[in-house]
Amino acid sequence: PHRMPPSAQFAHETLTTYPGSHHQHPKRMQKVQTKIDYVTVSADDVIVYVDHQGKPVSTTTIHKGLSTPTPHPAPPSPPPPPPPAPPANLNQGGQPQPQPHPQPPPAPAPKPDPAPAPVSSGPGFKSGVSYSPYNGDNTCKTTQQVATDFSKISGYEVIRLYGTDCNQVSNVLAATKGSNVKLFLGIFDLAQVQKEADTISSAVNGDWSRVNAISVGNELVNKGTDPGKVIGAIGQARGALKGRGYSGPVVTVDTMMAMVNHPEICKASDFCAINCHAFFDGKTPAEKSGEFVKGWVDKIGKATGKTVVVTETGWPTQGDTNGIAVPSQENHKAAMKSIQGAFGNNVIFYSAYNDMWKKDGQGTFNAERYWGIMGNAPSS
User: Fold this and answer.
1) So what's the pLDDT on residue 83?
2) Which residues contact 227 (CB under 8 A, 6 or more apart)?
3) What would the mean pLDDT of 82-89 be, rounded to a whole number?
4) Looking at residue 30, what is its pLDDT?
5) In angstroms, rounded to a whole number, what is the distance separating the alpha carbons of residues 270 and 151?
6) For residue 216, what pLDDT is reported?
């Protein structure tokens, strides 16, 4: 149990076609009537005198039978065309005047960058570890204590938290700032879904890129909670978080047996999230833990058609024997090696440190406090 256009160069005409006709619109021209008179004459010999430019100056007609030519004045030459106007780019002295360089068209205003989409990776991380922010006397750890604990935690891409109390979301975000760590957050109490969603939203302050996924409840169906109630809470949380800008995965976490018996809670989640411990089987030795957990992951994935993420798995270092499952430091290491060998990703180990705030008993084989990978927390 856990706590809580370019310009136009042509004019276009519209042609309308009606059945049985096709109208053309040629360019209109002014009518010119030409009258041609044909006259038959006897041609005399004509001499044409031209100047040095080849223009006619006078003509002489030699009539048949005459020996002396009679000059006839040439028709007047057309007046020379007026001199061209000076180019617009000449100054009063007739010299070209400098022209301004053409200015390029103004660049279009840059479009504003779209708001970055919320980022949440969900399944696909290599490994993670769970963490609880409580002292042995059940009080909340301070911001400094949390920072001290995380100074010793490394090599994990995901940190799993179970709730929102003790300012844990803000404290862990601060302790992991500047790293590539993402948080697998939790809404623990189904009666406080909206409140816990608001707490998470306030802590991340709009930066959802730090969040891997958010769970709603932990092992609730396994403890007797109606699956329909859990499914309803998943929907409520998803809506509340979406309203705050979160679009990542929302799931419920439960035991592998609860997922098999109630696949609807997995189907209501964005992926299947299971807690799976070979130790509680009692028939599996530590060195076979990887095979045990992998078997359940494959079974649930095949039954639901969804990706399965192991949100808790490990082995206790102290406690009572459960069949052939024996708590010890040696078996803890063997179990961890076996699980790491069976999985390339999507596994969260339980847990970073021993949880001395928990209560032990026969039902937990007096081992509930001693699952810490690194022993007791340095802030203890």
Assistant:
1) 52
2) 221, 262, 264, 265
3) 50
4) 38
5) 32
6) 98
C-beta separation of 379 from 149 below 8 A: yes
Pairing type for strands 45-50 and 56-62 reads antiparallel
Tens of pLDDT, residue by residue over 265-294, are 999 999 999 999 999 999 999 999 999 999
Give the tokens for residue 167: 């300012």
Report the chain's mean pLDDT, rounded to a whole number.
81
Average pLDDT over residues 258-266: 97
CB neighbours of 62 closer than 8 A, spacing ≥ 6?
Answer: 44, 45, 46, 47, 69
Phi, psi dihedral angles at 3 (to 5 degrees): -75, 165
Annotate 181-242 with three-state secondary structure. CEEEEEECCHHHHHHHHHHHHHHHCCCHHHEEEEEEEECCCCCCCCHHHHHHHHHHHHHHHH
Q: Which of 13, 312, 330, 368 is catalytic?
A: 312
DSSP per-residue letters across 102-164: PPPPPPPPPPPPPPPPP----TT-SEEEE---B-TTSPBPPHHHHHHHHTS--S-SEEE---S
H helix count then E strand count, the chain: 8, 11
Catalytic residue list contains 312: yes
Which residue reads 């400098």 in tokens?
98
Stated pTM of the model: 0.70
Query: 320: exposed, middle or buried (C-beta count within 10 Å: 0-12, 13-18, 19+)?
Result: middle
